[in-house]
Amino acid sequence: MEATDVVAGTTVRITYRAGRLSYTDATEIAHKVSTAAPSRNYLVEFEQTEDTTTAALARLVVLRGRLLKSGSDLHILGLHGRARDVYEICHLEQLLPQQ
Questions:
Q1: CB neighbours of 64 closer than 8 A, spacing ≥ 6?
Q2: Is 10 helix (H, G, I), strand (E, B) or coil?
Q3: Burial class (CB in 10 A: 0-12, 13-18, 19+), 81
Q4: pLDDT tens-digit profile of 1-21?
Q5: Exposed/middle/buried for 9, CB within 10 Å: 0-12, 13-18, 19+?
Q6: Biggest alpha carbon distance in the chain?
Q7: Residue from 52, 63, 56, 46 nearest 20 by CA
Q8: What's the predicted TM-score (pTM) here?
């Protein structure tokens, strides 16, 4: 997994640079968020990601729940292909909002 983060104001942006998001990758993203500079908002960009698992998306939902409890938030950006289909089939719009 390749990820970069850019701090802009109160948002940390993480760019995920792989074609498939697995549970292990989502766990690495969660670790990256937990070790990043404290922020009010985290944005994970998936513009190169065309496939994912439901377990990976569930891991991100759990991460967002933890962030909300601490006063932060998580949004995603750029899902497409099968990854977008899985997101929509699972009705994750309220649990893991896209920006």
A1: 73, 74, 95, 96
A2: coil
A3: middle
A4: 545 556 656 888 888 999 999
A5: exposed
A6: 33
A7: 52
A8: 0.88
Q: Please answer whether residues 46 and 83 qualify as being in contact, where contact means their C-beta atoms are separated by less than 8 angstroms.
A: yes
Q: What is the spatial distance between Cα 6 and Cα 23, in angstroms, rounded to a whole number? A: 23
Give the tens place of pLDDT for each residue, 13-59.
888 999 999 999 999 999 988 887 777 899 999 999 999 999 999 99
Q: Helix 81-89 crosses helix 54-69 at what angle (to 10 degrees)?
A: 60
What backbone phi and psi angles, to 5 degrees, belong to 77?
Answer: -145, 135
| Sequential DSSP letters for 32-83 | HHHHSPP-SEEEEE-TT--EE-HHHHHHHHHHHHHHHHTT-EEEEE---HHH
Angle, CA 83 vertex, CA 39 and CA 95 arms, to 5°: 45
